Amino acid sequence: MLTTIKTLKSILISFSSKIDAFTEYSGKCTAWLIITLVLLVGYDVSMRYLFRSGSIGIQELEWHLFSIIFLIGAAYTLKHDEHVRLDILYRSKFLTDKHRAWIDVFGALFILMPFCLLIIISAWPFVSQAYIHHEASPDPGGLSARWLIKSMIPAGFCLVLIQGIAEIIKKLNIALGKDQ
Fold it and tell me: Where are the domains of the chain?
């Protein structure tokens, strides 16, 4: 029985490590998107103010890249524990690492996971309707295929959901003690 528990624990830790590696990779891809966005904004500003020539399509692409950076980068932020949290109680000297781990587990199970599932389920019709109706920008010269940017909403929340599973595994390992 004890060997079965240890085997299951090692499988879960391995699974969590694979999720962490994937999230790390997606975070590095997001970093490249930030560089791309900075270059694109620099180009747009230069064209607009130096040459008096602007493009609605480029402006929309900037907005879309900005959205993708936040949606895809959210899982990376969760992995590195850099997300927003009310630290008045959480970081107090009255809580141990095990207490914090239990808070994280319950927060992930009862707030993070349901919220991610709600957004994924709610966004799916939004994406499919944009795809079915070939939704495009209403502005002349704007971007077409709006379903691509809208599909980043469920994709980003899927990444957060998956990273949330990895965090639950890691925090349960801390909460239940390392000797089990």
Answer: 2-175
